[in-house]
Write a structure and sequence with these properties.
heterodimer, A: 306 residues, mainly alpha, 11 helices, 76% helix, flat, B: mainly alpha, 0% strand, elongated
Chain lengths: 306, 295
């Protein structure tokens, strides 16, 4: 197990390096520097600016400097928000995204697994139809359609909740975004849980457990649940990644000051260092999540031995 | 002699190929057929609708701005806040979204098949290296890189297609590689080799037809995914640009003014969701129809 863990961690490092390098080179391959603007800047000022951001050095030196900064946890200075470093911007936006995403993910796991179990045990019941419907909705109604529809219903027609915005982690502003992300994730988790539990319930060892005369509750909780959870664990990784995508949309729809909003604005403003820093950060996050899921999978599944 | 034997000639005269079987099964699937019909209608409307309707997608009707749907002035779906006819804009947007979907699907499916088949046939180190790259691509949060690419390269139509292609070929590559690997060692391939069938003939007669099933299925899964990606990019303001439009752009426009004029959001949203639903059902139908285990 330890050598497997070590091997997986080592294998993840080149991925991260390749992503950083490719993104870095892409940014520098673009025509136009970050200080090209309509306003004429004198040559001396431009030279000073370039010296400050090390743009006068050869590319490989800039790249090594950037990597050195990264290793020390410094994402550089933002080109557009003059007094801000990318670190400051991230530090103010990350808690918002983590709170929304984390709560939604936890809720989705609990609700999705519960609904999936009930749907699998009572096929063709109301809960079952609900899970199937939710799965359909999740795959065909994208978050950027569902979000505005939720705003129309709950903020405009019913006037229960604010249509968007953010105020110091006040729950009123968090309910709709969390609900949106939860619904999207529940649709996947519920469907996968339902399918895998149905399959497990048809296997021989469950028949044996029943034949011993165990009550259904014990059969499900003690015997069926653990193997049935494996596919759910394996979708958690992709789901976490798509949550990052969904966060971009959610934060735009509800105008939340999170990472998604930051990256969309950064892309719109062509704030290269900001976008690059966020890409690096989120790639690290993604790779770590994938790694954790793989390790959890290896730990849970007795058939996988490394 | 008996009835069983008398039926035999019938069976022999009607050979059951994989494809005729699949067609029969697909035609029995009502949800998939209805979806196919609706999708055909939407495509047809997008192609010929803008010619028939009296308004252009980019000219404003100053008489009626943000007008609700009405038959009186033949703005059947109303107008947007610039007074442009919403139905025509939705259909033009559909052209763009569906074209992006089609082009990006064709290019990503082609890339995936070539990549996967090469890796599968070559095997060994080449295979390991090529699949390592695929693994890497999976670890990248694709929408972010798509945003990065669009930021750098600009928002031309073909660049959007290219950006989407770069991040949607890996599924197909993995599937085709796996399929190729297992097909290569099948008994019937070995048998064909043993009776002296040439390699190209083995590929086209035995391997390609068996690959096609999975390719067709995953293509129908790729199309809605690609359309969705384009819409997300456009929704975030990073895709197709005004005055050109796509469903994502229209939904974004609608979301901005949904308190006063909800129909500007709801019509394109309904159109996009219907299209995605149809593709999902067609994909399900094809999967059921082409699965050889279902025989």
């Amino acid at each position: 197990m330890w050598s497997y863990t070590l091997r997986r961690v080592l294998a993840a490092i080149p991925t991260v390096l390749v992503v950083i390098t490719v993104c870095y080179l892409l940014l520098h391959a673009t025509p136009g520097g970050p200080f090209d603007s309509d306003r004429k800047v004198s040559a001396a000022v431009l030279a000073n600016l370039q010296a400050k951001y090390h743009l006068d050095l050869p590319l490989w030196q800039q790249y090594l400097l950037y990597l050195k900064g990264l290793a020390q946890g410094d994402l550089g200075a933002s080109f557009r928000y003059a007094d801000w470093s990318v670190n400051d911007l991230v530090a103010s936006a990350l808690p918002v995204s983590l709170a929304i995403g984390g709560i939604a993910m936890a809720l989705a796991a609990v609700i999705g697994i519960t609904l999936g179990i009930v749907a699998a045990l009572r096929q063709n019941s109301l809960v079952d139809y609900f899970v199937m419907l939710l799965g359909n909705v999740g795959s065909a109604v994208p978050s950027f359609v569902l979000g505005p529809v939720m705003i129309i219903v709950f903020a405009i027609l019913l006037k229960w909740l604010p249509a968007g915005g953010w105020h110091d982690f006040e729950p009123r502003f968090m309910i709709l975004p969390i609900a949106l992300l939860t619904i999207i994730n529940v649709s996947t988790i519920g469907r996968v849980m339902r399918g895998s539990l149905i399959e497990v319930m048809h296997s021989n060892f469950i028949r044996t457990a029943r034949a011993k005369g165990l009550p259904t509750r014990v059969v499900v909780m003690r015997h069926a649940l653990k193997p049935a959870l494996l596919p759910v664990v394996s979708v958690l990784g992709p789901l976490a990644i798509s949550s990052i995508t969904a966060a971009l949309v959610t934060e735009t729809v509800f105008s939340l000051p999170g990472l998604g909003k930051l990256i969309v604005n950064g892309a719109g403003n062509r704030d290269y260092t900001l976008v690059l820093g966020l890409v690096v950060l989120i790639t690290l996050l993604t790779v770590t999540l994938n790694l954790l899921v793989d390790l959890a999978y290896a730990w849970l599944d007795p058939k996988i031995r490394y | 002699m008996n009835s069983t034997l008398e039926k035999l000639p019938d069976l022999a005269s009607a050979p059951r190929s994989l494809w005729s079987d699949a067609r029969r099964r697909f035609l029995r699937n009502r949800a998939a057929l209805i979806s196919l019909g609706i999708l055909a209608l939407i495509c047809l409307a997008c192609v010929i609708g803008p010619w028939i309707l009296p308004y252009a997608f980019d000219t404003a009707d100053w008489e009626s701005m943000s007008a609700p749907p009405s038959f009186a002035n033949s703005h059947f779906w109303g107008t947007d806040d610039a007074g442009r006819d919403l139905l025509v804009r939705c259909l033009i947007g559909g052209r763009v979204s569906l074209t992006v979907g089609l082009l990006a699907t064709i290019s990503s499916v082609t890339l995936g098949i070539v990549w996967g088949a090469t890796a599968g046939f070559m095997g060994g180190r080449v295979d390991a290296f090529m699949m390592r790259i695929v693994d890497m691509m999976y670890a990248i949060p694709y929408l972010l890189i798509a945003i990065l690419l669009v930021t750098i390269l600009g928002r031309e139509f073909y660049l959007v297609v290219l950006t989407i292609t770069v991040f949607s070929w890996m599924d197909m590559a993995r599937i085709v590689r796996g399929q190729t690997l297992s097909l290569r060692s099948m008994e019937y391939v070995e048998a064909a080799r043993a009776i002296g069938v040439s390699t190209p003939r083995i590929i086209f007669r035995h391997i390609v037809p068996n690959l096609l099933g999975v390719v067709v299925i995953y293509t129908t899964v790729t199309v809605p995914g690609v359309i969705l990606t384009e819409s997300v990019l456009s929704f975030l303001g990073l895709g197709i640009q005004e005055p050109m439009t796509s469903w994502g752009v229209l939904i974004q426009d609608g979301a901005k003014t949904m308190e006063a004029t909800p129909w500007i959001l709801l019509f394109p949203a309904a159109l996009l969701s219907t299209t995605l639903y149809c593709f999902n059902y067609i994909g399900d139908g094809l999967r059921d129809a082409l699965d050889p285990k279902e025989r």
